Amino acid sequence: MGTLLATRLKNRRKELKMSQRELAEGIC
Question: Where is the HTH cro/C1-type domain (predicted)?
Answer without folding.
Answer: 9-28
